[in-house]
Amino acid sequence: LALAVARQGQGVYAYNSYQSVIRGGHSWLRLRVSARKPLNHGDQIDGLIALNQDTLDRHLQELGSGGVALYNSAKVKPSYDPPTGVQLCPLPVPELAPSYKELPVMQNTVAVGAMLRLMGLEFAGLESVISTTFAKKPKVVASNVAAAKAGFDYAGAHFQPLPRQLKPNGQKWALVTGNELLAMGAAMADCKFYCAYPMSPASAILHWMAAHAKQLGICVRQVEDEIAVINMTIGANHAGVRGMCATSGGGFALMTEAIGMAGILETPVVAINVMRAGPSTGVPTKTEQGDLNQVFGASQGDYPRIIVAPISIPDCFTVIQDAFYLADRYQCPVLVISDLLISEGNETVDPAVFEHVREIDRGETILPSANGELHATNGEPYLRYKNTASGISPRAVPGVPGHLYVAATDEHDEDGVLISDIYTDPVRRKKMVDKRARKMSTVLEHLPSPLFNGPADAEVTLVGWGSTWGVLSEAVERLNAAGITANHLHVRYLVPFQVREVQKILGHSRRIILVENNQSGQFARHLRAETGIAANGHIRKYDGEPFEPKHIVAGVQDILNGKAEIVNVLSTEPGWRTDHPSGVHADWEGRLSGVARAATH
Q1: Residue 342 in 3-state DSSP?
Q2: Do residues 402 and 375 lie in contact, with contact meaning Cβ atoms separated by under 8 Å?
Q3: Which of 381, 312, 394 is nearest to 353 (CA)?
Q4: CA distance 511 to 259
Q5: Cα 191 to Cα 203, 240, 361, distances in angstroms
Q6: In b/e form, how buried is each residue of 241-264, taking b as 16+ CB within 10 angstroms?
Q7: Of 517, 205, 460, 482, nearest in space to 341 by CA
Q8: What are the b/e assignments for 499-530, b being 16+ CB within 10 Å?
């Protein structure tokens, strides 16, 4: 359905809520579709396709007036009356798809065809998706096209269309996930080694890399654990190629000692942590921004590192290219912190995003000459860790004649000789720590500014980081429309922190409200530690599901009305609950509003 509408010029944002346990449980997919590109998965339901009784029971009351509920009448029946103005749309699937008896999954195809008709779009878009999806199976194409067309025609003859109709247009979109764009961006940055151990929600990066490895000349390895992953990736970078790895919080925990090794060896490496709800196994298929403290504390001791959080699915493509540039230039680990929402979310992006390709710059890297010529050293001994004014030393990869040095995890002098092999020299130790620290002094010059939009004198400034950008952008629009002037500051680079720019913006703010997907306010602490600025209010969510615009708007209103300083949001739609409304739907609205009040206050 997402592809079918995207091929007719509609923007799509898709969020998939699914269970991690093998025994299953309730799973659902929300598509937000609009000619104006959606930035999040929204908070209202116009159309429902219920593929089983549980789904119809849970989600029917989420529909507003004018909404439609499609379901297989041979399998599913409403357990209670729908909300006022909601149209029930039973589909006689066995009649519309004769193959349904042998292939029950055909109900899906019938329902998608019917929904497309009620949205006002053309059947050709869906037909093209079926044809390309099953291109190698002509009989499967024919049966699915017939079932979809039957649903399309039946809906047109028996049901009223949705009040707000979509119209096909010529806009071209690419439908991608954040993980796919992280992988594509790495490939564009000339990444030639990728290593991983499968861990949700980062596994799809490995899938993409493995599928395209041969074509793109990338060495891809799935190994026994995350300790091997990070060590092999650092080894590949040490040997001269750009290498990357990705995991989630539990796997990243195993990587942290080796990340410190990259810090003292001054070996560039790009490592991605796609956050999920923790700690430990936690909730593997749910989203959270709970690993910020973890990446701050990766390994022990003081060493330069750069931490960046992409703000959206399209941003993943650009951020990962910048990560490789910064890793090579500053010869340090660059930690990219994403989360399930944008890494596994699907979004339509303008194909022009793929034209933003950063020129490959390896910094102070000395690579073996292709023609075997020697690299000049001007008669001086090669100092791998030379104490330069910038702190950045010439990095020769193995195989460059005349550039031998020792690379080890002990502290060392400029030439790589381990000072602990001779004696612990406090002067040399301090010199090397200071040298590495100086590298960070110019990083800010190469970073884009924090994102800020809205009137400078707004009543409320919403502050966020990472994946909350899309929902905060819409919340600002809704607040301004409701008479509450609001603006929005969003932080992408967490280390080094753009202190002066953030202080300048927030110094004019009348009321600062900080929004993040964790319980303890990890970014709030970081902001205060770096800038001395404490927020006036906090909106937090940590139930495993992402923010919706209404959560932000309601939280801001509660804070402004003095009802709370910290608003902890709980998703209260029936889809989240186990006490189904079946049989007790008469008082559902009252119970739901009561839960909402308890959750926000």
Answers
A1: helix
A2: yes
A3: 312
A4: 38
A5: 17, 11, 12
A6: bbbbbbbbbbbbbbbbebbbbbbb
A7: 517
A8: eebbeebbeebebbbbbbbbeebbbbebbeeb
CA dist 71 and 108 (Å) reads 9
* Residues written for the chain: 601
pLDDT at 526 over 50: yes
Give alpha helix (H) positions in 374-498.
419-422, 426-438, 469-481
Find the farthest-apart pair of alpha carbons in the chain and give their distance in angstroms, rounded.
Answer: 88
**Res. 290: pLDDT tops 90:** yes
Answer whether 0.90 is exceeded by the pTM: yes
Number of Cβ within a 10 Å radius of residue 90: 16
Inter-helix orientation angle 226-238/249-265, to 10°:
30
Strand partners, 271: 245, 335
pLDDT at 594 over 80: no
Q: Tell me the backbone φ, ψ of residue 318, rounded to 5 degrees.
A: -80, -45
Residue 302 neighbours by CB under 8 Å, 6+ apart: 433, 437
Say how far apart CA 170 and CA 172 lie, in whole Å.
Answer: 6
Contact 493, 499 (CB under 8 A): no
Q: How many CB atoms lie within 10 A of CB 57?
A: 21
Round to the nearest angstrom and report the end-to-end CA distance of the chain: 38
The conformation of residue 598, written as its DSSP 8-state character, comes to H
Average pLDDT over residues 365-390: 82
Euclidean distance between CA atoms 84 and 243, whole angstroms = 57
405 within 8 A of 260, measured Cβ to Cβ:
no
Position 378 confidence tier, pLDDT thresholds 50, 70, 90: confident
Residue 449 tokens read as 């500014």
Q: Are strands 242-247 and 451-453 parallel, antiparallel or unpaired?
A: unpaired
Determine how β-strand 460-465 pairs with β-strand 219-222. Answer: unpaired
Residue 461 in contact with residue 506, Cβ under 8 Å?
Answer: yes
Quickly tell me which residue has 């004769």 as its tokens.
98
Torsion of CA 335, 336, 340, 343, to 10 degrees: -140
User: Residue 371: pLDDT above 70?
Assistant: no
